[in-house]
Amino acid sequence: MNEENKSNYYAIIPATVRYSKELKANEKLLYGEITSLSNKNGYCYAQNRYFANLYNVSIETVSRWLSHLQKLGFIQVIVQRNENKEVLARYIYIVDLPYCQKNQYPSPQKCQEGIDKNIKDNIINNNINEDDLFYLIINNSFKIPNCFYEILERLELLYTPKIIGMMRQDKIDIIKDIVYILYDLYNSDFDFLLSKLNRESLLNLYYTSKEHSPNDLKNYYKRCIINKYSNKRS
C-alpha cells in the first residue's frame, strides 16, 4: 500500500480491545489501524508488509498478531485464491461486537411522524421470539418497522448476514439479547427511552447484567436500562 493510500479516518479501539489482557499493546494498535483502513470499504486489504513497515517489525510478527486477533474473535481474515491455490487478494474484516463497520447495511426508509397503531399492535401480538426477530432484522424484513431499524442504525447494531457469518457465536448471542430487549422496550410503555440510549452504555450495562444475573439476564438487563435512562433528561 502506497503512502497516499493511507486512510484519513480515525482509528477505533473499543474497550474490549483496550482492556483485553490477552492482547499485546501492538496487537491493539494493529486492530485500531485495521478499523481505520476498513471504514471506506467495510474491510481492510493492506498487506503484512504495509503493517510491518508501519510498526517497524518483521512480516512474520505482523502475521502472528493477525492470527492472534483472529483467534480471539476480533477480526476475520478472508483469503481469495485462484484454481492454482495462488493468493489473489486478502480481506480483513472487523467482527468484534463493540465495533460496527459503516455502510455495511442498507439504509432504512426514513420514519414518518408516528407509527400506525394497528401495525404496531400487530407486531406486539405476533410475539416474535429472539431468533426469529434477529433473522428478520439482519435480512432487512419489512415486518420490522422502519423506525426500529433507524434506532438500531443509530446505535450501530445493524449487521449484515455476511458479517454475522464471520462472528463468534458468543458475540452473536450478545447482539440477539440486546436487540431483543430494545424491541421489547420499543413495543412497550418505555419506548420513549430509546431516543436516550447510546451504544457504549448499552454494552456496559449488558456486561454488568451478565455478571450479576446470569439466570435471568434479559429481564435484569431490561430493568437496568429502564432504571438508568428513566432518570435522564431528554
Plain-language structure description:
This protein has 11 helices and 2 strands, in the order H-H-H-H-E-E-H-H-H-H-H-H-H. The protein has 234 residues and is mainly α. The protein has 2 domains: 3-94, Arc Repressor Mutant, subunit A (Orthogonal Bundle); 117-230, no CATH class. Helix 9 (169-186) crosses helix 11 (217-230) and helix 10 (199-212) crosses helix 11. The protein is 51% helix and 6% strand. A two-stranded antiparallel sheet has the order 1-2.
Order of helices and strands: HHHHEEHHHHHHH
Q: Please give the domain count.
A: 2
Main sheet: strand order? 1-2
Radius of gyration, taken over Cα atoms and rounded to an integer in Å: 20 Å
Task: Summarize the amount of helix as a percent range.
Answer: 40-55%
| Helix/sheet category | mainly alpha
Overall body shape: globular
Largest sheet: 2 strands, antiparallel
Topology, number of strands = 2
Indicate the mean pLDDT: 81
Number of helices: 11
**Regions with pLDDT < 50 over 5+ consecutive residues?**
102-125
Q: What percentage of amino acids are in beta strands? A: 5-15%
Distance from N terminus to C terminus (CA atoms, Å) equals: 46 Å
What labels would you give this structure?
234 residues; Arc Repressor Mutant, subunit A; 2 domains; two-stranded antiparallel ribbon; globular
Quick recap:
With 234 residues, the chain is mostly helical. It has eleven helices and two strands, in the order ααααββααααααα. It has two domains: 92 residues, Arc Repressor Mutant, subunit A, CATH 1.10.10.10; 114 residues, no CATH class.
